[in-house]
Amino acid sequence: MALVAVVALVPLVVAVRAGQQGWTPTSDLALTALWTRDVFSNETPLVGPFSATLQMANESDAPETVNHPGPSLYWALVLPYMITGWSPKALLFGRVLVDWACLGGIVWLCRRRPRPTDPTILLLIVGFMYARWEADTLVTPWNPFAALPAYLLALVASWRLATGCAGALPVLVAASSFAVQAHFGYAIPLLFPALTATISFLAQSGSPRDALERLRRLDSFWVAVAIALVMWLPPLIDQVAGSGNLAAIVSNSAGATFDGPIPALGNVGRALGLPPLWSRTVEGSFDLLSRGSISEKVVPFLVVASMAALMRATARKGDRDALTLLLIAMAALAGGYVALSLLPRASVFAAHAFRWLQPLSAFVWFALAFALCRLLHSSARRAQTRSRSAHMVQVASTFATAVVVVACASRAVFGPLFEPEENAFVAAVHELRRQLEPVLDPDATYLTISGGDAFIAGLGSALAVQLEPEGYSFVFDDDRAVPLQGWSRKWDGTNAEYSLTIMARWDSAVPASWPPERAVASVVLEADREDPKDKLLVWAEIGRLAQAEDSSG
């Protein structure tokens, strides 16, 4: 339990430090915050966040605007966000609760009967992985990162289901649904281990008729069915009576050009090779994907051969836990390889969507270490050197625990938080809000965000997160910004007195009319710190409206 507490404290301490630093959601994170506010309204979201990956994957002239499948991420974040009076910092702690729920689920599944297992090896790997994660990966509610712990939980649930633990089925359904709804990129990596686990579980009943009868009598089966219905009802409603998002996902995927199976070998090899990806800090999204060297493409074959040898040895020993773990790990590896083979070439610009390679590598290494330890323990028992073997295992476990505890403490207390560019963006939001504060009328209810750049939509969304709880409603009036960021608000007819316009230019030269005559705030945000001439110039303009017009984003 002490190791569980240490691992659980890492995201909490990082979230507290980020909150003290003044973190506020911007861009995609701000859009997530705005959607989360709508969960208990009459405009509750039925789909997930906007998908830049699927948008870029479709190389046709007119790709459909598409979102990720479902709103589960918003459901997970809404309670702490609402309880704190819509404080943006609460989103960090909502993400921490997701991590804690998944971590608790992993420990609970490992200790479940009929075959309880010590989760120490997995907790050591997860703890070291947490210690290597960047702050945004660890605590921000960005959908590709928020789904990471759920993906790992789904892999563990697949393993436990394959061993015959019926209670793992609802957990598998809930964790898989959460991950896939948050980001469509988790669908194929989870499909293979989930199917393998289900088939293995049903095969223990003998004939198909006996398997179906067993399912019908299991309470956990009906709980899993209820969870699936609740979680997938909103996307189905949207498909039938809304935007048809599920069909749009299929349509955009069909319009992609794929990278193919050979480059996928290099990506898998980079994840599994030495040092494995779970023990490394990913220096930016682009470090995840590459075509890989010849040696990296050989690594997957070596890993699969090692797993096959261990499977044969554990089968001879009658160790069902280790055997099924290796089986699920191999299925997860196959799912990851297929997903990377279907990697759209354009999605290299959204490589963050493939961060599941880190927990995948952690699970595969856990399977190898677990099976090897079980075999060594069995051999020591047969050779009547059990006490000596147990002592060596205890010493190794203590040393590894100490290393992980030190790494976790160092990461949580002294580790870096966010990149300088992100800190500059957050500082710009706070500065613009500070300069606007004296001139914003508390009775104003209409705020217009305009501009044709993604950064404008990101800055506007960040301001919206701060001002919407005060009664402001918002409209994006630029056609290109709305589908790019996937968010819009419709004016509700409330009389408005003020309009705020935010504009930007990608230009090193300050306009001759700078600042605008009616400007009330100006912020210079360095977009590229390596080129001081490349700056994002932002200014705000407020004017009284004679009559508010109905507008939509």
Total E-strand runs: 5
Strand order of the largest sheet: 3-5-4
Biggest sheet character: 3 strands, antiparallel
Stretches with pLDDT under 50, minimum 5 residues: 477-498, 505-510, 545-553
Termini Cα gap: 50 Å
**Rg calc:** 25 Å
Which geometry do the CA atoms define?
globular
Q: What order do the SSEs take from the amino end to the carboxyl end, as H and E?
A: HHHHHHHHHHHHHHHHHHHHEHEHEEE
Keywords:
553 residues; single chain; 6% strand; two-stranded parallel ribbon; 22 helices; three-stranded antiparallel β-sheet
Question: What features would you describe in this structure?
Answer:
By secondary structure, the protein is mainly alpha-helical. Helices cover 60% and strands 6% of the residues. It has 22 helices and five strands. The longest helix has 29 residues. The relative contact order is 0.12.
Provide a compact summary of the structure.
60% of the residues lie in helices and 6% in strands. The protein is built from 22 helices and five strands.
Any chance you could write out the topology, listing elements then pairs?
Blueprint: H1 2-20, H2 27-37, H3 52-57, H4 72-83, H5 90-110, H6 120-132, H7 135-139, H8 143-146, H9 148-162, H10 168-182, H11 187-203, H12 208-217, H13 219-241, H14 245-254, H15 261-272, H16 294-317, H17 320-341, H18 357-382, H19 386-414, H20 420-436, E1 446-449, H21 454-467, E2 473-476, H22 481-485, E3 498-506, E4 519-526, E5 535-544
Parallel strand pairs: 1-2
Antiparallel strand pairs: 3-5, 4-5
